[in-house]
Structures are given as C-alpha cells and as structure tokens.
Design a protein that fits this description.
The complex is a heterodimer of chains A (287) and B (290). Chain A has 287 residues and is mainly alpha-helical. Chain A has two domains: 45 residues; 222 residues, MetI-like fold (Orthogonal Bundle). Helices cover 79% and strands 1% of the residues of chain B. Chain B has a two-stranded antiparallel ribbon. In chain B, helix 3 packs parallel to helix 6, helix 3 packs across helix 9 and helix 7 runs antiparallel to helix 8. Chain B is globular. Classes of the chains: A mainly alpha (287), B mainly alpha (290). Chains A and B meet through helix 1, helix 3, helix 4, helix 5 and helix 6 of A and helix 1, helix 3, helix 4, helix 5 and helix 6 of B.
Chain lengths: 287, 290
C-alpha cells in the first residue's frame, strides 16, 4: 500500500506492532487448542459407562461419579429455583417501580459488589450464615443458597437488559386500556423479558458448573447416592468439587481428567446455547 | 372493588420492593459477617502483628499469626499475572477489534468465551500436570509448584476478561477519530495504537482492574499449583500461599484462634476486593463519560 513511501522508523513500528499482535493472537489460539486437545486426549478414554453409572465403592475398588452428576443436577435446579424469582423481581422493581434514584443506585451498586466478591468469601459467609446460623448444616441446599446470592447479579442484569427492550408504548397501551400496574407487568412486561431470563439462566448454569471454592465449605464433598429431597438436605460434591478432591487429595488423575472432559464439553455446550438463544431472540425481535 | 384492587397493587409493589432490596441486604450480611467474625482474632493478635508478622505457624506449639507472606504473595502473584496477561490480552484485543477478518473474529470470540467458561479447577488440574512438572524440569528445581506456576495460571485465567473488556472499549471508539487519523496519512496500525487505544484507555484500564480483581480472588486453581507453604515470596520458585488459598486450605480442619484468624484473612481479602471495585468503578464511569 502506502508503506513504500514511509520512513524507516514508521515502517519498523508497524512491522513490530503487527508481529506482536500476531504473536498474542497465536498464543491465545494455541492455548485454547492445547487445552481442548489435552483434556480430550487424557479424559475421553477414561469416561466409561461404569464411571458414569455407579457410586464409588472401596469394597469393589472402583470410582463412580453418578452421585456427583446427580448432586450437580440438584444444585443447578435448586439454585435456579431460588435465584430466578429474586433476580427477575429485583429487575422488575428497578425498571418498573423504582422512582427514587438513590434506591436504584444503591441496588445497582450492591449488585456490582456482589459480582466482584470472590467465591471463597461466598463460601465462608455461606458456611457461617446458611450452615451454622440457619442450621442447614453442610448440605446441597446450603450450597444452592450460597450460589443463588452469587448468581443474583447475573440474572438481574440480563433481565434488566431485556426489559429495556420492551417498547414503552406497549406499557402505555395497556395502561390506556385501564389495566393496573400489576396486570401490565404480568401480561406485557414479564413475557417481554423471557429472553433475558433464559440467557441469565444459561450463564448461571455455566457459573454453577464451574464453581468449587464456594461449595467446599457449604455443600461439602460426599459422594453418596441420594434421591432429590434426601440429596438436598445432605452434603454432596458437584462434578467440579469432585474433580478437585480426586486430583488434589486422592491423586486419581484419570477420574479427574474424565470429569474435566465432561465439564469442558458442558462449557462448550453452554456457550453454544447462549449464542443460539441470543440469535433466536434477536431474530424474533427484529421481525 | 376499587379498594381491593389498590390493596393488591400495594402488596405487589411491596413484594417487588423487598426483592429489589434483597441484593442490598445480601451485601450487608456479607459485610457484617466478615467484620464481626474477622475482628476478634485481629484484636487478640494485634493489628500490626497480624498484618506485618512474617511467620504464619497456626498449628505450631507456640502459634504465630502473621499474614504478611500471604499479602505479599497475593500482591506479587496478581502483579505477575497482570504483567504477563495484560500485554497479550491487550494486543489480541486490538487485533480482534480492528484488524481481524470477520471469520477470524467470530472463531476467536468463541475461543475466548470458552476460555472464560472453563472451571478454575480444570486450569488447576492442567497446571498441576503440565505446568508444574514443566517448571521443575526447565529450571531444574526440586518442586515446580511455585509462585511462577500460579502467576502463569492466573495470567491465563484473566486473559478472557482482559480481551473482552478491551475489545468492547475499542469497538466503542467513534469511527470519525480513526477516519481523521487515516485521512491525515497515518497507516491503519498507527491509527489503532495512537488514536483508538488512547481514546479507549479508560475502558482498557477497567479491563486491567477487572483482571486484578479476578486474580486476587482466585482460590482453587492457585491452590493446585502454588505449593501451599506459608513462605515469604522471596523468589519466583518458592512454594507460596495466597490470601485465598490460606483460607481454603486450613478452613476444613481449623478451630479456635486459628479459625478466627482465617476469618480475619478473609476480611483483609474483602477489603482488597472492595478497593479494586472502587478503582474499577472510577474507570468505568470515566470511560462511559468518554
């Protein structure tokens, strides 16, 4: 292009900067590829039906992760059941009701603070508040309550964003027909924020799957097979916590890599789902 | 009828108000619990002794509770992660935001969000089995679990936030700025680094501070690669313990003053986080105002 006419110093600057950018991108891409390949190679051969479908047994000398899979499922469901109403409610309050700017400011500041607090601190406070003060002991439900606080800002933010896209004229139309505020929210506002809630749920599931520090002291690390209600009240490790325990405490790296491969696949799936949902609703809104 | 409707409306309003304020309530609960459970140990040990004591020997016959090694390790570890991670993330973000073809951009966006979504224990696991032995071999030291390993893992873990936030900031730079620079004869690369980057500097600063917050708060991945001995971080190859890992590794079997001291460490960590949060807000506000 113009490069021929540029001074040597400028040409050198451009070349160096380009090279640096290339190296950075190549490093990032190589890192991702390496992680995927390494975990796939080390993990997938260790995923067996026996591993997925049994519980660990010292007598038979085997390790099974079925309890961990179920615990993960319980904790994801319990957390969402707790956090979605709270998050959606808070978002609706902020966009539909709140007129006092100081309250709005305080709530938004609180949400920002919550999303910055490290999970180990959630773990400690969860242990003190839910396990000890509220007497839930170390249990899945205490873990789910802790994670609900952690994920509250996510659900709140995604719901708020989608509420902002509900046209003001819809609300005015409904008010004009004589509907009360509650009715407008039920029939006009809530259906409009479904996409935000779904996106928020997907993001939250991702965070719950990846969480370990907040769960170690609230949900514990037992690997016992339980039904739903028993399971909620008793301690249990999620897949992520189980990975940590198997790798760090027991040196069972084969199992750890099998779990890592499962978690990677789930992460990939969640990312794809999030972007698919985003695209689906974008298209519907633009119609 | 009308009264009943008004009653329902008021009740609903009240319920939503409570849901809105519950966030504030949680923040208050967390703060109060950390302060209330963190203060007693500090009072018993003495603030100066606690913050600047150089030895942590919580299980010794004559226990000593100085957390300076943890504080310094957390600061050095975070600074190291920033020094390694930020240049790479920043340069990658400039490339992706300005120069990359749409197809490359799309693929890399997916890759970066995968990186962001990988659980921290998976990073810890790979670090334990690849990085730690690698460091041991390359530098010929008895154990590779060290501050250096933690720095590398943290740098990788903050990379996605750095790239994403910087990209958003760079993409928000008005096109007119760049057009003006190009029209004056600057090449694209010069334009992006000398016009777009300075214009997006508050956003990029926010990315760095966000990275600091992530790195200070990370516990599990770091615990798996840093060796967990409460040494002063005098070299990159020392086995060290961070504020987060000190809490995480001793909590399970602690009691008495040791346990209380762990809560005090959590309080110190919380103060660090609140501080970075305040700095982050400052930069975000400035970048929003332009």
């Amino acid at each position: 292009m113009l490069t021929g006419k540029l001074s040597r110093r400028r040409r050198a600057y451009i070349t160096v900067m380009r090279a640096l950018m290339w190296v950075s991108i190549a490093l990032t891409a190589a890192l991702v590829l390496f992680l995927i390949a390494y975990i796939a190679v080390k993990g997938i051969p260790n995923i067996t039906w026996e591993l997925l479908s049994t519980e660990p047994s010292y007598l038979k000398g085997r390790i099974g992760i079925l309890p961990d899979i179920l615990n993960t499922l319980y904790i994801v469901l319990a957390t969402l059941v707790i956090v979605v109403p709270l998050g959606v409610g808070a978002a609706i309050y902020l966009t539909e009701y709140a007129s006092n700017r100081r309250i709005v400011g305080a709530v938004e500041y609180a949400a920002e603070t919550l999303s910055g607090i490290p999970s180990i601190i959630y773990g400690l406070v969860g242990m003190l508040f839910f396990c000890q003060f509220m007497g839930l002991k170390t249990s899945i439900i205490a873990g789910a309550l802790t994670l609900a606080i952690m994920n509250l800002p996510t659900i709140m933010r995604t719901t708020q964003e989608s509420l902002k896209t509900v046209p003001q004229s819809y609300r005015e139309g409904a008010f004009g027909l004589g509907a009360g505020k509650w009715r407008v929210i039920r029939t006009v506002v809530l259906p409009g924020c479904v996409d935000g809630v779904i996106t928020g749920c997907i993001l939250s599931v991702g965070r719950i799957l990846g969480e370990s520090a907040a769960l170690l002291f609230t949900a514990g690390f037992a690997h016992i097979l339980n039904g739903v209600f028993e399971g909620l009240a008793s301690p249990g490790a999620t897949l992520t916590v189980a990975l940590y325990v198997y790798a760090k405490e027991q040196g069972e790296f084969e199992v750890a890599f099998a779990i890592a491969a499962i978690l990677m696949a789930l992460t990939l799936l969640i990312n794809l789902a999030a972007s698919a949902v985003g695209r689906y609703f974008d298209r519907r809104k633009s119609l | 009828m009308k009264n009943r409707k008004r009653l329902v409306e008021n009740i609903v309003h009240g319920i939503f108000l409570i849901m809105g304020l519950i966030t504030v309530g949680f923040v208050l609960i967390i703060t109060v619990y950390l302060v209330v459970s963190g203060i007693p140990a500090i009072r018993e040990i003495g603030l100066i002794e606690f913050l600047f004591g150089k030895t942590w020997a919580s299980t010794a016959a004559e226990p000593s509770y100085g957390i300076l090694p943890f504080i310094l390790t957390s600061i050095y570890g975070t600074a190291g992660a920033i020094v390694v991670g930020v240049p790479i993330g920043f340069l990658a973000a400039v490339y992706l935001a300005k120069l990359a073809r749409p197809s490359v951009k799309k693929v890399m966006r997916g890759a970066v969000s995968l990186l962001a979504g990988i659980p921290s224990v998976v990073y810890g696991l790979v670090g334990m089995l690849v990085l730690v032995p690698g460091i041991r071999k390359v530098f010929d030291i008895p154990d590779g679990a060290s501050l250096l390993a933690a720095i590398i893992v943290l740098a990788i873990m903050i990379l996605p936030s750095i790239i994403n936030v910087s990209m958003t900031a760079l993409e928000a730079v008005p096109k007119e700025y760049e057009d003006a620079s190009l029209a004056l004869g600057a090449t694209p690369v010069e334009t992006y680094f000398r016009v777009s980057v300075p214009a997006a500097r508050s956003g990029i600063a926010a990315a760095v501070v966000l990275g600091v917050g992530r790195a200070i708060g990370e516990a599990m991945a770091v615990m798996m690669v840093s060796g967990n001995a409460p040494n002063m971080p005098s070299s990159l190859f020392q086995s060290v313990q961070f504020l987060t890992t000190a809490v995480a590794s001793e909590m399970a079997y602690s009691g008495g003053l040791q346990r209380q001291a762990l809560f005090s460490i959590a309080l110190v960590l919380f103060l660090f986080i609140m501080l970075t949060g305040a700095v982050l807000n400052f930069f975000l506000k400035r970048s929003r105002e332009g």
